[in-house]
Amino acid sequence: MTMTIDLNADMGEGFGAWRIGDGVDPHILPLISSANVAAGFHAGDPTTMADILRQAAEHGVAVGVHPGYRDLVGFGRRHIHASAEELVNDALYQLGALRELAAYEEMTLHHFKLHGALFMHAARDNEFAAALCRALKRVAPSLPIYCLAGTAIDRAAAKAGISRVHEFYADRDYDDEGCIVFVRKVKPLEPETVAEKVLKACREGVVEAVSGKQVPVSFQSICIHSDTPGALSLVESVRSALDRAGFEVKAP
Description:
The chain is an alpha/beta fold. 39% of the residues lie in helices and 18% in strands. Strand 7 (145-147), helix 6 (152-160) and strand 8 form a beta-alpha-beta unit.
């Protein structure tokens, strides 16, 4: 039986003339199965968003919205103190923006995935996670939420009856509790080492934490961030390893 796995990456993380990730989006898109598109708050202007949508369609890549904190200067990696209501409104605003552009391109959105510090906030803040899932259940009930298994937003989505796609983060470290170690600046990584880490997680369901402990992980999607130094090499190495191992790379 063929094993399937999703491979996703964050796309469109620039703003106007500025680009994050060395302009690798066009090269990464043919290698992945789903893309998380920045929707204006941490990165992404309307034309950049539309361009990514069209490129994704050309390669048959599923697209999801990637809302972040209202933090262009900090690329959405700084925690912003705001009420759950304000953050939910910000997320819905970004969802609506990308959904309209997608509709214009005759595309439908595939999933919802928070970005950066807002992703981490939803992973641990029960109030925000519950409020966001209640809102999404009303305005986008068919959109699965990409998240880390066992977190606050995973539990809130399950309670709200929203599908979840659990992720494995190939280019991030894990702690002993199975949570990713959040950093504002990622160091360069060795592509072969990352590919081996991914295959071990896929085959054995474990990842080595920063302490050296083997931690269990459960996931249906692998994430590689396009702004990680050398991201294209990482994606190429992981995709090649998955292909050789007999995995079918396909969006859920």
